[in-house]
Design goal:
The complex is a heterodimer of chains A (231) and B (461). Chain A is built from 9 helices and 6 strands, in the order H-H-H-H-E-H-E-H-E-H-E-H-E-H-E. Chain A has 231 residues and is an alpha/beta fold. Chain A has 2 domains: 81 residues, Methyltransferase, Methionine Synthase (B12-binding Domains), Chain A, domain 1, CATH 1.10.1240.10; 135 residues, Cobalamin-binding domain (Rossmann fold, 3-Layer(aba) Sandwich), CATH 3.40.50.280. A 6-stranded parallel beta sheet of chain A has the order 2-1-3-4-5-6, sandwiched between helices. Chain B folds into 2 domains: 92 residues, no CATH class; 353 residues, TIM Barrel, CATH 3.20.20.460. Chain B is globular. Classes of the chains: A alpha/beta (231), B alpha/beta (461). At the A-B interface, helix 4 and helix 7 of A face helix 2 of B.
């Protein structure tokens, strides 16, 4: 593997944003294939971080810093792919936030970092986000996925309100709404007719990949559930 | 010598303190300061997975010193304004000196005295049930009265309601205010109906924002002899909702019960870091949130639980550290993941609550059956079991509790990631007659017998 890819891999793991950006630029100048750089330098680094997190060897701040470094490097590499007329690495835009009334953002930050590192452009609205803000941002950013999280049971109805509002605005089919957070279950996802649920942050990548590739022309589809709890 | 800062001064600091963005706080300030303390006090890699209950009291004391230093170095971030509320050493010492070592809760025959405890203290750790498990409007009164009818349960918290007369209650919406007033009024009435009018309460579990908390201390609602529950967003952060609740509680002449779990794997990193941050947050909440009681909660972010080896060890050290070095009335939660009617839930309770009780916490609340994820997944029988274990394990030697943990942990630890969520209350408990259904009672009797045979003095209290 190229020395630059190895260096990018190290920079992402260390969460060195400036280094990651410079190495990504240098890899383009050196004529390396951007997709190869993404897979070897960014994806592999974030896979390692994800495994280490699951094993209790890496922690949320490292994961967030790695995600930030990966996002910066990814932006220049994706721009190069587009400039060359290519596709395939840009997985789509996700608008993410914690529902109104709730200020718990640890899980949301984890998902943001992991999605960023997997080629998704993630627009993070932060905490205590109203239904209107989710929708307006998704429209403005041409997002495919709206990811809304809450740790508080009493904020759950806002997830339902988000879907009902999309329905009322007759734009429901434009967005895949996925749910996360402690009290969210597959049952709740089905009940409010959301589009997806995953039990862990790492499974959310697979969920989003499946959702962006599915064709909704024929109308609503069943939600995709990954990692259901034992009943 | 400086004294504990007053409310005006805290509100001033939360507006005018040093600026720090939440992102910088989360990924730089907190992790760096925790790492610094771990190194300074040589506390890295102290977790002993083979012995989930710490028995080294010198180690616990070192963790306390590290937590105290961390509290002074960091303070808490007011995320509403990105300002740091700092407390200096003299102020913190004064705060801890002024904190009550004994608190009277409730009134009449059901009054309870919560006391500062030490590890293996024979004075019983009090137990309150349940946590904020969501309940249907139909089941909530029966479950709540069912809990109040368990004489072992000292304090009544009850589950969360999400609707009122069929209308979903939304946070920061008038429906939240209305729901909480109604829930508080019924909470008081149900205690009376259960024959325990003076039983202490905790309110209001359904109050996400300050609007829901306005019921506390008002006429016909939660008494000021009850605890006012004020959760802050994470272990080193506050916000305006938190401070509104504090101001209201103090204005009512009530008692603040504040808390937020330190997260293993979160901002403070490894279990050792989470112990330090949990101690720091516990100390700071007495200065910044004017806590009467509370502090000492801690979970593993990977499972939102703490009945795994890392979580149990961290809980034991945190409560040993706080109880040996302060006279605070601290609070621990055993965050279960399995559900009603399962042996696993009962074993998770046995292990988790025993660790907290023997390590010196003053009170505990629970259970978090089925991880708190499912509507009506809470049985008063499980509340009774929690309280029985809390009282019985209080005076146990830490070595014996460690042996108990090692004996019963294998009953559930392989399933923590994919727990058995059990059954809703209607399938394990006779709601109208306030008694367990036979199948659930048989499971309870089996686990209780095993715990007793092992040496838990269940019938001695």
């Amino acid at each position: 593997m190229s020395d630059l890819i190895n260096k990018l891999y190290e920079a992402v793991i260390e969460g060195e944003e400036d280094d990651a950006l410079e190495i990504a630029k240098a890899s383009i100048e050196a004529g390396l294939e951007p997709l190869k750089v993404i897979r070897g330098g960014i994806q592999a680094a974030m896979d390692l971080m994800g495994d280490q997190f699951e094993n209790g060897e890496a922690f949320l701040p490292e994961l967030m810093l790695a995600g930030d470094a990966a996002t910066l490097a990814m932006e220049v590499l994706l721009a190069k792919i587009k400039e060359d007329g290519g596709e395939g690495a840009d997985s789509g835009t996700v608008v993410i936030g914690v529902m109104a009334g709730d200020h718990h953002d640890i899980g949301k930050n984890l998902v943001r970092a992991i999605l960023s590192a997997n080629g998704f452009k993630v627009i993070d609205l932060g905490i205590d986000v109203g239904v209107r803000d989710f929708i307006e941002t998704a429209k403005r950013e041409n997002a495919k996925i709206i990811a809304c999280s809450t740790l508080i049971t009493t904020s759950l109805p806002y997830q339902k309100e988000l879907i009902e509002t999309l329905d009322a605005m007759k734009i429901r089919e434009k967005y895949q709404v996925i749910l996360g957070g402690g009290p969210v279950t597959p049952q709740w996802t089905n009940m409010i007719k959301a589009d997806g649920y995953s039990n862990t942050a790492s499974e959310c990548v697979e969920l989003c990949k499946q959702l962006v590739s599915r064709d909704l022309e024929g109308g609503a589809a069943d939600p995709i559930i990954i990692g259901a709890l034992n009943a | 010598m400086k004294q504990k800062p007053d409310l005006i001064e805290i509100l001033r600091r939360s507006r005018e303190g040093e600026y720090c963005s939440a992102h910088e706080w989360d990924v730089k300030r907190v992790p760096k300061a925790v790492k610094k303390m771990l190194k300074k006090y040589d506390l890295q890699n102290k977790l002993d997975k083979e012995n989930p209950v710490n028995m080294d009291m010198e180690l616990a004391d070192k963790f306390y010193q590290a937590g105290f230093d961390l509290a002074l170095e960091l303070g808490m971030l007011n995320e509403a304004r990105d300002r740091i509320v700092k407390i200096d050493e003299e102020e913190l010492i004064s705060t801890l000196h002024l904190a009550p070592a004994e608190v009277e809760l409730g009134f009449g025959h059901d009054k309870r005295i919560m006391k500062s405890r030490t590890p293996s203290d024979p004075y019983p750790m009090l137990f309150g049930s349940s946590l904020g498990i969501t309940m249907s409007e139909e089941a909530w009164p029966y479950i709540t009265e069912g809990i109040a009818r368990q004489p072992q349960v000292d304090i009544l918290e009850s589950g969360s309601l999400c609707s009122i007369n069929g209308l979903e209650a939304l946070p920061n919406d008038p429906s939240e205010t209305l729901l909480c007033y109604e829930q508080g009024r019924k909470h008081v009435a149900l205690r009376r109906q259960a024959g325990r009018e003076g039983m202490p309460g905790i309110g209001n579990i359904s109050a996400v924002t300050e609007f829901g908390q306005f019921c506390y201390g008002t006429r016909g609602n939660f008494y000021t002899t009850d605890l006012s529950l004020i959760l802050y967003p994470s272990e080193m952060k506050i916000n305006n909702q938190t401070m509104h609740k504090v101001v209201h509680t103090l204005a009512m002449g009530g008692m603040v019960f504040a808390g937020s779990p330190g997260m293993i794997g979160g901002m403070p990193g490894p279990p050792e870091g989470a112990v330090i941050s949990s101690i720091a947050a516990a100390l700071l909440q007495y200065a910044i949130l004017f806590s009467t009681v509370g502090g000492g909660e801690l979970y593993d972010i990977r499972y939102l639980s703490n009945v795994n080896r890392e979580g149990l060890w961290a809980l034991s050290v945190t409560h040993q550290a706080l109880s040996r070095n302060t006279h605070l009335c601290t609070h621990g939660i055993a965050n279960q993941v399995s559900g009603p009617g399962t042996k696993e839930l009962l074993y998770e309770t046995l292990v988790g609550v025993s660790v907290i009780a023997a390590s010196g916490a003053s009170f505990s609340t629970g259970p978090r059956s089925a991880g708190g994820k499912f509507n009506d997944y809470l049985s008063p029988l499980d509340c009774r079991w929690c309280a029985e274990v809390a009282h019985a394990a209080s005076g146990m030697d830490l070595k014996d509790v460690n042996a108990l943990v090692k004996e019963f942990l294998p009953e559930f630890e392989d399933n923590i990631k994919t727990p058995n969520i059990g059954k809703p209350v209607q399938e394990v408990w006779d709601l109208k007659n306030f008694k367990p259904l036979p199948e659930a009672e048989a499971v309870y009797n089996e686990v209780r017998s095993r715990a007793k045979a092992f040496g838990l003095p269940l019938d001695a209290i």
